[in-house]
Amino acid sequence: ACDPIPTYSLTYDANGGTGAPAKAEGLMAQAGYTLSTQKPVHEDADGEKVVFIGWTVEQDTKIYSKDDTAPKTVTTIDIAGDTTVYAVWGYDTNENGTADVLENKYRIVYDLNAGAGNSVTGAAPTDTASYLAGAAVTLKDGSGFASTTHDFHGWALASDADTALASYTVA
User: SS3 of 101, please?
Assistant: First the structure.
């Protein structure tokens, strides 16, 4: 008599969300089983949209923000016993459908544009924040430095610009 081939189940845990795929049952041991592409959903948290990042093999209840390191997610899994994968979530503050932690981040660097013959004392302001595309940023004022040859009129996107900006929308 032959022994029956063992089968296993794969549970999708929405991990604080709802709408996870149904449990997959009757799976034979295998490498690289492709996970469902069905995405669960999560209620807003702290007044911000929360979106699905992906599936992880270890439960992680953190909701990731733009300044976090993105979690390692999987799209396939080896089935060698009953297995659970967990939804992992991220804030979507710009509401574009992608978790902020997965988006490109931008920095603003201030340059004093001290060309030849221009003596500048002090230092340009610094901005240590990271910004997502679409963020409107109020630019720093002209305090903290001075020029012996020019008056400060504001910041611009080019060294020869005629118009100063009070704010900038990250693109």
Answer: helix
Residues near 27 by Cβ (< 8 Å), separated by ≥ 6?
Answer: 7, 8, 9, 10, 33, 79
d(CA 51, CA 72): 16
Two tokens, residue 4: 């029956």
Q: Which residue has the tokens 């959903």?
A: 41
- Residue 106: CB partners within 8 Å, gap ≥ 6? 130, 131, 132, 133, 135, 170
User: What's the pLDDT tens digit per position in 91-136?
Assistant: 999 999 999 999 998 999 988 877 666 678 888 889 988 888 888 8
pLDDT at 117: 64
If we measure between CA atoms, which residue out of 80, 32, 33, 85 comes closest to residue 60?
85
Closest CA to 112 of 124, 104, 122, 100: 124
Distance CA 111, CA 77 (A): 49
pLDDT score of 32 more than 90: yes
Question: Cβ(94)–Cβ(69) under 8 Å?
Answer: no
Which helix (H) or strand (E) is 56 found in, with range? Answer: strand 50-56
Candidate from 56-65, 108-117, 149-158 with smallest mean pLDDT: 108-117
